[in-house]
Automatic annotation (TrEMBL):
Gene3D superfamilies: TolB, C-terminal domain (2.120.10.30). The lineage of its organism: Eukaryota, Metazoa, Spiralia, Lophotrochozoa, Mollusca. Residues 22-71 form a coiled coil. This is TRIM2_3. Keywords: Coiled coil.
Amino acid sequence: MGDIIKHIDSIKKDREANMSSFEKHKAEVKTVRNKINKLLDKLEKDIDEKKNECKEKIQKITSELEKKINRNNIEEIIIEKEQYLQTGVDNVEVVVDTGLHNIMNIVHYLKTIGTFDIKTHKRFFLQEPSTVTNKLFLKGKYEIIDNIRLSLQKKISISQSNSTCIRGCCISPNEQFLFTDRFKCCVYELNSECALRNTWFVGPTFGYGIVCVDAQTVVISSGIHCFKPGLAILNLKQQKKKTFIELPGRTYGVTKDGQSLFTCVQNHGIYEINLTDFKTTRIIRCDITSSSHIAVYADKIYYTDNNEDCVICCDRKGSHIWTFKDVSVLQNPRGIAVDDGNVFVVGEMTDNVIAISSNGNNYRELLTKNEGLSSPSAIFVDRKKKNILVANTGTKAFLYNFSVQ
């Protein structure tokens, strides 16, 4: 009986110790909770202060912006009125009846104020848009990529062979689909119904980039061919080579603008070829990497660098404008095309097509694996009909119509 009582006392003491420990932990939790509450209160206070600070800055900027806009509007009105008042017309006589008898004295005094001369002439004003207007306009222009909408028109089977390596594509003026196959050194021509019409072997070139000069003539770059690098000009109607333009290095991407061809020559730079006399000029000296593709729009040149996973934009003299690089969305860029300053690029390793804004700061992913892309390598944009042709390295290609909404 004594042992039982002793055992009960032991259990009682143990429970009391547990309760004491529990109260101790409870107090510790309460202390920590108070510290957390204080920290959260401080954080909330800091956020409120920052929010108010930002709000004040925004209000200040808004006020300054409104003043500037109002000032610019006033300046525009003043210039407009000044232009109206000072615009003269040749051979028009203006008679002013001032009611004064000695008008020549007034003219004399006017001429003695500084070195003014009174002449009859036409007056033209070229007013530069305000900075605010420029920013608003450019902002809207750069946001075009967010409003691009694609509509699938056709899925194309380029070849029945599994050993293809498509590197270039385009649509001819008579709506024929053309694809270069580097493995087979040939060009596939498919009609508007996507049926294979012809296959041309383009040796000694391997067949890389391709661009149409007209409905019967295409230009094909040699690619990795190192014995005779350059551009082959083919007549599709006569099914024969018209001429070959030899270049100093491996020749990859090629495009046409006006009456000139532009092409990437590895380790040498970008060359321009006049289509009238085939005169060749290196317009940009730069270290072009292998497999670079090129596009030209207005006064700008765009080309890809798959070694650095980037897209470069420069003017026609080679002055750098911007570089786009984001390996999370674009790796091993291949084909490139431009419409209205917006750049379309295929990522071979990222299995996608992205649109880059004309200032190079923004991008949008347009097509991915979900749309059937698998190592895409080539892209072509028909600016008039608003079509985009995208080709995989394998046997599949896709025709989309695009619009800006």
